[in-house]
Design goal:
With 569 residues, this protein is mainly beta. It has seven helices and 40 strands. Strand 10 and strand 11 form a beta hairpin.
């Protein structure tokens, strides 16, 4: 079971295509335990890729796999659960899938892949919006998001694709009262440098939009929900930002009816890539990942022999992590601090995902910010080798995600602490492990969503137990529950040749923060089965943590998902 061959095939089976859809919801068999009577009525949506290999010899990177939305609907009061799944009918999916012949031919390169059976040299179909990264239900709409394009809207129950949702168009009107915000939030370089970047941006925009079909602004796939104000927060950046040493960020806040409440724009003098971000009462918080243009990689990418993402490389030239604290309101910037100057966190760290952030006044009249997140080493992060993708043999090599020194380099849970004085100047910034009891790789930190933007005690995360000799770090096989008040950690793990996905917390409305359940998918790849697991959040670390396991019919077993969302009915 624990051989090198078993590890290789288990890893690759985790990303096996599922061509079948489940349009009519099917009842899930309870394979273990029972759905508890206090489990709320609602739907767990899980986004992720479903199709990796076409019928003409091409295998794409997991990040370029066509979006496949899964939905687990619970009736409440201990009733059963029903499952459905459908592909997101994006423009790329309609072009590449012949429904009549039930065949696939990949024509889009996508940012991370190299085609084998399709056109390579001169193929400018790079922006393959597959709507596979995250999912959201807000204002009665279900949206599937991707990192480089507009989201797609799906029917909340039937999962039928309704079409692209122009969410940035909602923010294009006059609801932004601070029209000169971008100018005020621009940190000035010497005028000659600034003029050169302006000229380069003007030259790049028509090429990126006209040739490569990139939208002028790309919406990030990660959003935030402010439960106190009942707002949805989203952020977009400019297409040319990937290639220039300047980053433009526009933050949008929507009310429960998708009406734009606020829009704030910032221009930062840094070449950054942002995947996840966070917020507090007064700030939008960006942990910057510094990148640079890779000229040899760009040339190889243009030939079609390397993925387009090879045009970028990490920039490890500075031994710190920039943390931008951007004012969420005009009142928040009244202190006079230059918010375009980042707080430089002491260790160099590539930010991956953020679980929570909050700020509190301190005894000296200042403010203390805390961030609970995952981050990895610049030495390990590699754009076009993520997931071990090897476009030459069309396989995924687990060795990249399980390197001998990976324990210290792969994503780990940390707390970032920032102390600001009355004027907003940084007195101190520190980064430490979230738990000294848990030092192994971990990612996808989650909390009880009711505690977003305020002090929380518990963080739940996917984690690696290290029980597999040849897969010690990834894929994850555990959920770790960290008590940030004392640094203690408790673990629940699967046994044998199984893996787990991202944990999602489902609150039950109790008085304690951990009153609720943790949902996650268990992938029994060697048996070609999936189970939705319900854990009692209070009992993680105990033998009876599993409340129920719901079995997905074998012919509907799906590949590993990315990010999910729980929506109460």
């Amino acid at each position: 079971m624990d051989s090198l061959s078993a590890a290789f095939w288990d890893y690759n089976l985790l990303f096996r295509s599922q061509r079948a859809e489940c349009r009519d919801p099917v009842a899930l068999r309870v394979a273990e335990g029972a759905i508890p009577p206090d489990f709320p009525a609602g739907t767990y949506y899980l986004a992720g890729p479903g199709m990796f290999t076409d019928d003409h010899g091409s295998t794409v990177h997991p990040l370029d796999g066509h979006g496949y939305l899964r939905a687990f609907r619970f009736g409440g009061a201990g009733e059963g659960a029903r499952y459905s799944a459908r592909y997101v009918e994006t423009a790329a999916k309609r072009e590449e899938h012949d429904a009549g012949a039930a065949s696939w031919r990949f024509t889009h390169r996508g940012p991370f892949s190299v085609l084998q059976g399709g056109a390579r040299v001169g193929n400018v179909k790079v922006m393959k919006n597959v709507a596979n990264t995250s999912v959201l239900r807000w204002g009665g709409r279900v949206l599937c998001l991707w990192e480089g394009g507009e989201p797609y809207e799906l029917h909340p129950r039937t999962l039928e694709t309704l079409g692209p949702f122009d969410i940035l168009g909602l923010g294009a009107g006059g609801a932004a009262p601070d029209g000169d915000a971008a100018e005020r939030h621009r940190r000035r370089r010497p005028w000659l440098q600034e003029a050169a970047i302006d000229v380069a941006a003007r030259l790049l925009r028509p090429v990126l939009s006209g040739v490569f079909r990139m939208p002028a602004r790309r919406l990030l796939a990660h959003y935030k929900i402010d439960p106190e104000r009942n707002r949805l927060l989203m952020v977009a950046c400019n297409a040319e930002d990937m290639l220039l040493p300047r980053s433009n960020f526009t933050f949008y806040e929507f009310d429960a009816d998708f009406a734009l409440v606020q829009k704030r724009e910032f221009v930062l003098p840094d070449h950054l890539m942002i995947h996840d971000w966070t917020f507090t009462d007064k700030h939008y918080v960006l942990l910057g990942n510094r990148i640079k243009l890779d000229v040899p990689g760009s040339l190889m990418a243009l030939t079609g022999t390397h993925p387009m993402i090879a045009a970028l490389a990490v920039d490890p030239s500075r031994q710190s992590t920039p943390v931008y604290l951007l004012p969420r309101s005009p009142e928040a910037e009244a202190g006079g601090r230059d918010w375009s100057v980042p707080v430089e966190a002491p260790p160099q760290m590539w930010s991956v995902h953020v679980g929570n952030a909050f700020e509190e006044p301190d005894a000296r009249g200042g403010t203390t910010l805390r961030l609970h997140m995952s981050g990895c080493s610049y030495q390990w992060f590699h754009f076009h080798r993520m997931f071990g993708y090897n476009w030459m043999n069309k396989k995924l090599d687990p060795a990249f995600m399980n390197a001998a020194k990976g324990r210290e380099l792969l994503p780990r849970l940390v707390q970032v602490s920032i102390d600001l004085d009355k004027g907003g100047a940084c007195r101190e910034c520190s980064v430490r492990r979230l738990s000294d009891q848990w030092t192994r790789p971990a990612d996808f930190p989650a909390i009880n969503p009711s505690f977003a933007n305020r002090r929380n005690r518990f963080v739940y995360s996917g984690a690696a137990s290290g029980s597999r000799r040849f897969l010690p770090f990834f894929p994850f096989d555990s959920v770790v529950k960290v008590d940030v008040s004392d640094g203690s950690a408790r673990l629940w793990s699967v046994a044998g040749r199984k893996f787990v996905g991202e944990p999602v917390f489902v609150p039950t409305g109790g008085r304690e923060e951990d009153d609720g359940y943790v949902l996650l998918v268990e992938y029994a790849v060697s048996d070609h089965r999936c189970h939705l697991v319900v854990l009692d959040a209070r009992k993680i670390g105990e033998s009876n943590a599993v409340v129920a396991k719901l079995e997905v019919p074998k012919h509907l077993t799906f590949p590993m998902g990315f990010h999910g969302f729980w929506a109460d009915e």
